[in-house]
Specification:
Helices cover 62% and strands 3% of the residues. By secondary structure, it is mainly alpha-helical. The protein has three domains: 14-106 and 131-178 and 210-272, no CATH class; 288-309 and 318-449, no CATH class; 456-480 and 500-640, no CATH class. The strands form three sheets. It has a three-stranded antiparallel beta sheet with strand order 5-6-7. A hairpin with a 5-residue loop joins strand 1 (45-47) and strand 2. It is elongated and about 95 Å long.
Length: 685
């Protein structure tokens, strides 16, 4: 069983479980193993032919670190991704994984035998037991999880002198920092009784052999608090702290999860003094820092984003928050081999997440430190550092989005994006292994990596609309002089605008609209699509804009293309969120959102709402939106109030759009047949 657990702990194996949607079932299988082996004292051990010693601690640690690593891989299988992808954090809890697991097994139990024949994977992966399981079945795991949640929520308290937990804390401190204890500077935990650590080497050996893993994990946060406090007050050197943490991790590898959680919580509290990475007390990144800065600038060269300087003022070295510095120092103590890879993944995720949320330049500093240790990771580390440029700067994110539009539409002079298209948006890889050294990263890849850090997604929705309209104006003008744009002429190939074909312009407008809708869906999922259609777009139409600022025929061209762009943008966003039929769960939200938007459109057409946008933009939007629904999303119309459809149809008739008005009523259901008949008689269609 231990060999099996270790074998599936590698990142590639976990990704396969994730892609097939089997993470909840794997988690449900691991929880009983953790509960049982974590409750056993390691009185018996086995030595393998490789020299590795197997005990209940080893089995528990391997299962526990795998279980905790699964939380961030809990995504539905690719063929079922329709709604919002659960964000990293709030939903990824043990309770959530068990609920999903129970739901999956309940639904598979209701599936007929004939349906099972279509999926060999379903038959192989079906567990022998389909009974639901809950967190109450695992009291030790539940107690640990609640303790970790309490550590995250507030500072440590509640360690009472003389209790079993206090004795374990004292024993662990003596085991990890016995050299410091012998020098007369004890590392003691804060207790209500204020006792000092005590113990002997014999007691340490007994402690190593007889304590269950859950009991040790309960004491670990207090050990970490005492060690970090001692280091902050000079009673423990940084090197001794890192050595002690490594000894703790070697003694019980499962403690790495608690170490990562505790230090992450302490960093976010902001109560610890900074640790100066001077090369004496803490490792120094100075040798690689300037190189990292240059590589970040080169990676972001295609986006036009300014990279803040990494130079530290005066003679002060780079600094990290003390808990983060301790965590980074711990990771550096590990040798890079197959045996430690799964444990480094636990620490690496915590370091990456923490550094991304800390002030600039924490992540570049860590990248410089690790680049010195593992040169082959340099590209990945620099790329991770480059992403943090966007985490605290909304203007940089907007500039990144602007670069995505210009690259895709071929409006950028950069060599990697001058031809436009998806290749310019997503690029063809990067890294120092390419000819000419490390290359600029395509803007689309960067946005896929940084969009989860965007805090104000409503703001991003508004900016995407602004960038879409700006792109439409650039498409209409195509960089030509104003005197050429004013020459509207017709040829045997169709209408041409200066040197710009109207058909070619519409093709590029559709591309820009598809890109904008993709960004809306990626950034905020169905909730942002709902906000876009119910709030952002109506507010945009009511406000005054300057699309027609150029005046004359060129302004009319821009206004018309802008309306069509918004129509494509809105309908595509809706299809991403709800689909074109009613099979998905998200489609249940559609009638309310769509009904509200069409009511706004009908009221504006009736003249009950005053619009600030150009009339050509509005007419193009309404006709484009209705045309797309009639041609592509007919199921949507059956969910809309017939009176609203009649009002829209009447407005279209006033704009001499009789055929579109009739088509709208034709798919409105039985209740719209009378109005359709009247339209046929009156217009003679």
């Amino acid at each position: 069983m231990n060999v099996l657990i270790v074998g599936i702990s590698f990142i590639d194996s976990v990704q396969i479980f994730s892609l097939h949607g089997l993470v909840p079932q794997l988690a449900g299988a691991l929880m009983p193993i953790c509960e049982v082996f974590g409750s056993c004292a390691p009185k018996v051990s086995w030595t393998l032919t490789t020299g590795e010693e197997i005990s209940s601690h080893a089995v528990f640690s391997n299962a526990f670190t795998l279980l905790l690593g699964l939380w961030r891989f809990n995504y539905p299988p690719l063929e079922h991704v329709m709604g919002d992808v659960p964000p990293v954090g709030s939903h990824l809890t043990p309770e959530y994984l068990l609920l999903v697991r129970n739901s999956q097994l309940a639904s598979s139990g209701n599936t007929t035998k004939g349906q099972h024949k279509s999926s060999r994977l379903t038959r192989i992966s079906s567990p022998t037991s389909t009974e639901p399981i809950f967190m109450d079945s695992f009291p030790k795991l539940k107690l640990w999880y609640r303790q970790i949640q309490a550590c995250i929520a507030s500072t440590l308290s509640g360690l009472v002198h003389g209790t079993p937990v206090h004795q374990i804390v004292d024993g662990l401190l003596n085991m990890l920092f016995r050299k410091i204890n012998r020098s007369g500077q004890p590392v003691t935990p804060t207790t209500s009784g204020g006792s000092n650590s005590s113990g002997s080497g014999t007691e340490d050996a007994s402690l190593r052999l007889k304590l269950p893993a859950w009991d040790i994990l309960e004491a670990v946060p207090f050990v970490l608090d005492a060690a970090l406090t001692a280091c902050a007050h000079g009673r423990l050197s940084p090197r001794e702290l890192a050595t002690g943490l490594k000894d703790l991790a070697d003694f019980l590898p499962a403690s790495l999860v608690t170490i990562a959680s505790y230090f992450s919580a302490e960093v976010t509290r902001g109560i610890w003094k900074p640790a100066f990475m001077n090369g004496t007390d803490w490792p120094s990144p100075a040798a690689n820092l300037s190189m990292v800065e240059q590589q970040i600038k080169r990676m972001l060269a295609a986006t036009g984003v300014d990279v803040p300087s990494l130079a530290v003022g005066g003679s002060s070295p780079a600094a990290l928050p003390l808990p983060l510095a301790a965590l980074v120092s711990l990771t550096i103590t590990y040798k890079l081999d197959k045996a430690t890879d799964r444990f480094l993944n636990v620490l690496g995720l915590a370091v990456n997440t923490l550094a991304a949320g800390c002030p600039w330049p924490c992540m570049p500093t860590i990248a410089a430190l690790w680049s010195q240790k593992v040169k082959r990771w340099s590209d990945f580390l620099v790329f991770s550092a480059s992403r943090t440029v966007f985490h605290h700067n909304s203007d940089a994110v907007v500039q990144l989005l602007r670069s995505c539009f210009t690259s895709t539409l071929g409006q950028n002079s950069s060599p990697i994006s001058s031809s436009g298209g998806v290749g310019a948006l997503l690029g063809h890889g990067f890294g120092s292994h390419l000819s000419g050294g490390i290359s600029p990263v395509a803007p689309g890849i960067l946005y896929l990596r940084v969009h989860r850090s965007v805090r104000n997604i409503i703001f991003m929705s508004e900016e995407i609309v602004v960038l879409l309209m700006r792109s439409v104006k650039d498409i209409a003008t195509s960089g030509l002089p104003t005197e050429k744009l004013d020459k509207l002429k017709k040829t045997k190939y169709g209408m041409r605008y200066g040197q710009v074909s109207l058909a070619a312009a519409m093709t590029r407008v559709k591309l820009a609209a598809a890109l904008g809708a993709s960004f809306i869906w990626i950034t905020g999922g169905s909730s942002l699509v709902q906000s876009l259609i119910k709030e952002t777009l109506p507010s945009w139409f009511i406000s005054v804009h300057g699309l027609e600022a150029d005046g004359g025929e060129s302004g009319g061209m821009v206004s018309m293309l802008g309306g069509y762009a918004l129509a494509y943008f809105a309908v595509l966003s809706g299809t991403f969120a709800w689909g074109v039929d009613s099979t998905s769960a998200e489609s249940k939200r559609r009638p309310n959102v769509l009904g509200s938007h069409l009511e706004f459109m009908a009221s504006a057409v009736d003249g009950k709402i005053s619009l600030g946008c150009d009339s050509a933009t509005w007419r193009a939007y309404v006709s484009g939106f209705v045309s797309l629904m009639v041609g592509c999303t007919m199921m949507w119309m059956l969910e809309v109030d017939v009176d609203v459809l009649k009002r829209l149809s009447k407005g279209l008739r006033q704009w001499n759009e009789e055929e579109l008005a009739l088509a709208l009523l034709g798919i409105g259901g039985v209740d719209a047949m009378g109005a359709a008949a009247e339209l046929i008689i009156e217009s003679g269609i």
